[in-house]
Design goal:
The chain is α/β, with parallel strands linked by helices and 604 residues long. Helix content is 39%, strand content 22%. The chain is built from 18 helices and 21 strands. The protein is globular and about 90 Å long.
Length: 604
């Protein structure tokens, strides 16, 4: 006899502010299931999870929890009133004999249970809420972005705990590596509908793209049918002066069907524009040492950053990644050593604390009021990379509706705040980008776009992130900060760094092993065979085709210019062909040089 599901939602409909979030939604969660809940920011993932938790009452439909089933929800903003310390809150509702579970979770998630609630940060509160849920171990865990505010070590600990649990869980996360390792089913929210795939997150993006491709094909066929029927209606009525009312009604129904189709939301129009070119050497740090608040940040650290490098800084929270970057930017003096900057640096900074945003200001004023974006005498325009834009049009580029333009920043979700910060950052030309935790709260599609943009950006990037997949796709160099002043430079991204340390990536079903720290003498130079990053491998594979195309274009232009009468017969065409030939010859030389450098790096 089949067992009843732990949780069953049937015909759920919910409307917020006049817009339907879900309509006739039904789903079930079975015992032991591991489900990824995915969808774009604003699609309703967190709302659906609150409906599953019983915290949001739908307008219509039923929620049934199997008798005796415990359902636990990780709160984004936990109510800690009545608790003096984080440990008090986390241990609430636990038997005294189970308090040790909080100590274990606190060590793994890296928070101090004795810290008073009144002075705890938002990240510490979220980690305490997660520890409470893990200690309670309900039959069904609802986890909304549990990796936010966790460093890579804590993410690894949580991944290990969830891989071993017998409980079912539904997981919202932007961390691809985390989702791939843990999930076996996928729920995808798209325009108010929930689709289910009985496979984990790995392969989701191919499935999603196939669904969208099939939709586009069906829409194209529908448009062709409407066009044909409309032509018949006009020609038939003109010829016979008599209507076939059945076909006319059918035409109206087709048009109504097309109008009812919900258009997919486009991707945010992200675009970093490099300003003037910096010098080839961007930052040179020699022998840096720094102790901050009694903690050693770096000791005798040396690093050279060249134009075009993407340098990632990884390590536990609190190890000093942001402090080191501030020293490299010249914002903080080292105790010893020196930092030299190259020429013509234009620096743009994405701040993980979102401190650049005033929560009481509207989105409109956040852009118009930025001195770097202000257009003199124009209260409704912003300067975007040297070109005036209407503020509403620019907000639409980042997926904000016109109705939200006057809304306060405090009303935005975490992902929307990140998009607003990116809108401000991308308005200014730069040649050195500093991105401190840019991936927090961004949906997967926006992350994809950000990765592509960084790959095309003709400048230098300093990056802090705990997203392993993002690091692999983006970084060309990784600075691993291991604590007690130790910082080591490795070639490539996260997986390259692990490989060079002799660590092997675990299979999803394996529990992450603990690794003892290396004891070799610190050096800031890569001592092992260099390897290509994800971006470099992709570029190396693409270059031969690019070189062949340029050679073919040069040959074609050469044939054209070999006509001795071209200059006198068509001087404008001659001039354009000459300029095009010069341009492609320069591009060919640059592509061949890039191929040679990457090939040499691949060969070690």
């Amino acid at each position: 006899m089949a067992r009843a599901p732990l949780l069953q939602l049937t015909d759920i409909s919910l409307t917020f502010g006049g817009d339907p979030v879900f309509d006739d939604l039904s789903l079930a969660v079975q015992s032991g299931e591991r489900i990824a809940l995915v969808g774009r920011n604003g699609s309703g993932k967190s709302t659906l999870m609150k409906v599953m938790a019983g915290l949001v009452e739908p307008d219509r439909g039923t929620r049934v929890v199997s008798p005796g089933t415990g359902v636990g929800y990780m709160e984004q903003d936990p109510d800690m009133s009545g608790s003096v310390t984080l440990g008090d809150f986390a241990a609430r509702d636990l038997d005294p004999g189970e308090a040790y579970k909080i100590e274990i979770a606190a060590e793994g998630l890296k928070f101090d249970p004795s810290r008073e609630v009144s002075v705890a940060s938002g990240g510490e509160r979220r980690r305490a809420a997660l520890a409470r849920l893990m200690a309670q171990a309900p039959d069904l865990m609802l986890l909304d972005e549990p990796t936010n505010h966790l460093d890579i070590e804590a993410i690894g600990w949580l991944e290990g705990q969830l891989s071993e649990t017998r409980a079912a869980f539904v997981l919202i996360s932007h961390d691809r590596a985390f989702l791939r390792a843990l999930t076996r089913s996928t729920l995808w929210i798209d325009r108010g509908a929930v689709r289910r795939r009985d496979a984990g997150f790995d392969g989701f993006e191919e499935w999603r793209d196939k669904v969208w491709e099939d939709e586009d094909t069906a829409r194209h066929k529908l448009n062709r049918k409407i066009k044909a029927e409309a032509r018949w209606a006009v020609e038939g009525i003109s010829a016979r002066r008599k209507r076939n009312m059945g076909r006319v009604r059918a035409l109206h129904e087709l048009r109504a069907e097309r109008a009812a189709q919900i258009k997919r939301q486009g991707a945010a129009a992200l675009s970093f524009e490099a300003g003037q070119k910096s010098g080839r050497k961007v930052i040179e740090a020699k022998g840096l040492s720094k102790t901050f608040g009694g903690q050693k940040i770096v000791t005798d650290f040396t690093l050279t950053v060249q134009r075009g490098d993407r340098v990632a800084f990884v390590g536990p929270n609190g190890v000093g990644k942001t402090t080191l970057i501030r020293m490299l930017l010249g914002q903080l003096e080292p105790d010893a050593g020196q930092v030299t900057h190259g020429t013509n640096l234009d620096i743009a900074v994405f701040d993980q604390s979102r401190s650049a945003l005033d929560p009481e200001m509207s989105l409109w004023d956040s852009l118009v009021g930025d001195p770097a974006m202000r257009v003199s005498g124009k209260a409704d325009q912003v300067m975007v990379r040297g070109t005036p834009r209407h503020v509403v049009g620019y907000l639409k580029d980042f997926l904000f509706d016109e109705s939200r333009a006057r809304a306060p920043v405090r009303s935005l979700s975490g992902g929307e705040k990140a998009r607003l910060l990116l809108a401000r950052l991308m308005a200014q030309p730069s040649n050195l980008l500093v991105l401190d935790e840019p991936t927090n709260d961004l949906d997967i599609e926006t992350l994809d776009l950000l990765q592509d943009i960084l790959g095309e950006y003709d400048g230098t990037v300093l990056l802090v992130s705990h997203d392993r997949d993002f690091l692999d796709r983006t970084a060309t160099t990784t600075v691993a900060m291991e604590g007690n002043g130790r910082a080591v430079v490795y070639a490539g991204g996260w997986s390259d760094y692990r490989t060079q340390r002799g660590e092997v990536e675990e299979k999803p079903e394996e529990r992450p092993a603990s690794h003892s720290p290396k004891t070799e003498k610190y050096t800031s130079k890569v001592e092992k065979k260099p390897s290509l990053s994800f971006t470099e491998k992709h570029r190396l594979a693409a270059l031969p085709d690019e070189i062949a195309r340029l050679e073919a274009e040069i040959a074609k232009l050469g044939d054209l210019l070999s006509d001795p009468q071209l200059f006198s017969r068509e001087p404008v065409k001659f001039k354009k062909a000459t300029e095009a030939l010069t341009e492609r010859q320069a591009k060919l030389a640059a592509a061949e040089e890039e191929w040679l450098l990457l090939e040499e790096k691949a060969e070690g």
